[in-house]
Amino acid sequence: MPIGPVKTHSLYVNGEFVTAKSTKTLDVIEPATGETLGRVPDAGADDVAAAVGAARAAFDEGPWKDATAQDRGRVLFELAVAVRTRAAELAELETRNTGKPIVEAADNAMSLALREPIGVAGQIIPWNYPLLMAAWKLAPAICAGCTTVLKPAEQTPLSILELASSFADAGLPPGVVNIVTGLGETAGAAIVAHPNVDKIAFTGSAEVGKAIMRSAAGTLKKISLELGG
């Protein structure tokens, strides 16, 4: 397909397309042909500052943060209608810009967001309110369709183990909730490092939270941390 004249694009700041303060530009190359598909500003610090300033002002002084969920939903719905209306155009541009097959680009324009269970959740709780902490961790995971491996604090595991005797009677299938006792540096560390654990939820100290973040980074686990002293 002929490229035609090469378009130089603008930045989008504060609800409008604006000329960049920076005079530098970047060529956008079409992978399939090696030709220049367009040019975009190589934004500098002043351009970024303008965009951040607009965003900050819109948050602090504008109506968006106080809009109702219904109002935000209506805006998103209208945006979705616009994407659907322009799906063919957007898919063609995406294909030329990325080199992806048109089928993949079209799928991106029409994709849906679904809430789905994340998988296996490793959960580590402190000593001070074991049943309450277990409930806070287990209930959302179960409701979401996840399975869990819960490690209570080594000092206070008994009430949770007792509760576990009621799981089967409540109708939980085997393996949905698992309780593992032990020390943080052994059992807890093993949960965090295990490649088949998809998410870590931890309540405890900031120092242990930092260690969990470092360890979880190796397998790109999602983490939720509630940290204290």
Helix/strand layout:
Elements: E1 7-8, E2 11-13, E3 16-18, E4 25-29, E5 36-41, H1 45-61, H2 69-85, H3 87-98, H4 102-109, E6 120-124, H5 130-144, E7 147-151, H6 158-164, E8 177-179, H7 184-193, E9 199-205, H8 206-217, E10 222-228
Structure overview:
- With 229 residues, the protein is α/β, with parallel strands linked by helices.
- The protein folds into three domains: 66 residues, no CATH class; 34 residues, no CATH class; 109 residues, 3-Layer(aba) Sandwich (Aldehyde Dehydrogenase, Chain A, domain 1), CATH 3.40.605.10.
- Helices cover 43% and strands 20% of the residues.
- It has eight helices and ten strands.
- Strands 8-7-6-9-10 form a five-stranded parallel sheet, with helices on both faces. Strands 1-5-4 form a three-stranded mixed sheet, with no helix packed on it.
Task: Report the count of strand segments.
Answer: 10
The spatial strand order of the largest sheet comes to 8-7-6-9-10
List SSEs in N-to-C order: EEEEEHHHHEHEHEHEHE
* The CATH homology group name of the largest domain: Aldehyde Dehydrogenase, Chain A, domain 1
Strand fraction equals: 15-25%
What is the total number of structural domains? 3
Q: How far do the termini sit from each other?
A: 62 Å
For the record, the CATH architecture of the largest domain stands as: 3-Layer(aba) Sandwich
CATH topology of the largest domain: Aldehyde Dehydrogenase, Chain A, domain 1
Mean pLDDT: 85
CATH class category label of the largest domain = Alpha Beta
Radius of gyration: 25 Å
